[in-house]
Write a structure and sequence with these properties.
Organism: Desulfamplus magnetovallimortis
EC number: 1.3.5.1
Subunit structure: Part of an enzyme complex containing three subunits: a flavoprotein (frdA), an iron-sulfur protein (frdB), and diheme cytochrome b (frdC).
Number of helices: 9
Order of helices and strands: EEHEEEEEHHHHHHHH
Strand order of the largest sheet: 2-1-5-3-4
Catalytic activity: a menaquinone + succinate = a menaquinol + fumarate
Largest sheet: 5 strands, mixed
Shape: elongated
Protein name: Fumarate reductase iron-sulfur subunit
CATH architecture of the largest domain: Orthogonal Bundle
Radius of gyration: 21 Å
CATH superfamily of the largest domain: Alpha-helical ferredoxin
Helix content: 25-40%
CATH topology of the largest domain: Fumarate Reductase Iron-sulfur Protein, Chain B, domain 2
Strand content: 5-15%
Length: 244
């Protein structure tokens, strides 16, 4: 049997917290591998042909929405970007992302966490003209290099992989985590945001902010978009250290 005809074994956590008395169990499914198969494609095959009750999330199938993040053989990653050929042994273990509310099986509620994070960092441009909109006022010009830096940070798809890979988050529930730092750094470098460093300090200047990070950098190691988490955490620390 060629590599492209091998039978994959998926060991998947099955648990529905909405069903009273349900007990978490690992269930094994066998799938015939196809050329270019991803974990996402295999999961769809299982749900369509073996078990329609299997719960997992997806929207874009192109690594843009971040909704299909899960633990794949012990590492957080996107199911739609992970090829089954990456696992020569053909044994693949799938678990839901830890650190988020479990909906069922591989489906977690990242949206609840991301919304709370956005509200906490006040994820919008703070402008002194916000309360008195002048439609004729031209937006100030932005340096192209700054615009490129903001665009780089905007590539975050809020998949939650960095949250699940963060040891500090495991120990401290209120820790903002790398996705929050990335979001806040985006506004800290944006010249249109008029917040002072003191105002940013109120959000991240404590142990639940950048000074609580243990710099283990699981966030950077497992970010599917290869975002510069280490660079941004260091940038925010230096900037906040100058406040007090």
């Amino acid at each position: 049997m060629s590599d492209q005809e091998r039978i994959l074994k998926f060991h998947i956590l099955r648990y529905n917290p909405q069903i009273k008395g349900d007990i978490p169990t690992m269930k094994t499914y066998e799938v015939k591998e196809a050329p270019g198969m991803t974990i996402f494609i295999a999961l769809n095959d299982i749900r369509e042909n073996q078990d329609p009750s299997l719960q997992f999330d997806f929207i874009c199938r192109a690594g843009i929405c971040g909704s299909c993040a899960m633990i794949i053989n012990g590492q957080p990653d996107l199911a739609c970007r992970t090829l089954t050929s990456k696992f020569p042994e053909g044994e693949i273990k799938l678990l839901p992302l830890p650190g988020f509310e479990l909906i069922g099986d591989l489906s977690v509620n990242t949206g609840k966490f991301m919304r709370a994070m956005s509200e906490r960092v006040e994820s919008w441009i703070h402008d002194q003209y916000a309360d008195n909109v002048d439609l004729d006022r031209l937006e100030e010009r932005m340096d192209p290099d700054v615009a490129d830096e903001i665009y780089e940070l905007e590539r975050c798809v809020e998949c939650g992989c960095c949250v699940s890979a963060c040891a500090t988050k495991r120990m401290r529930e209120g820790f903002l985590s790398a996705v929050g730092f990335m979001r806040l750094a985006r506004y800290a470098i944006d010249p249109r945001d008029k917040r002072s460093d003191e105002e940013f300090y109120e959000i991240i200047g404590d142990d639940d902010g950048v000074f609580g990070c243990m710099t283990l950098l699981g966030c950077q190691d497992y970010c599917p978009k290869d975002l510069p988490h280490q660079t941004q955490i260091a940038y925010l620390r230096r900037r906040m250290a100058l406040v007090k």
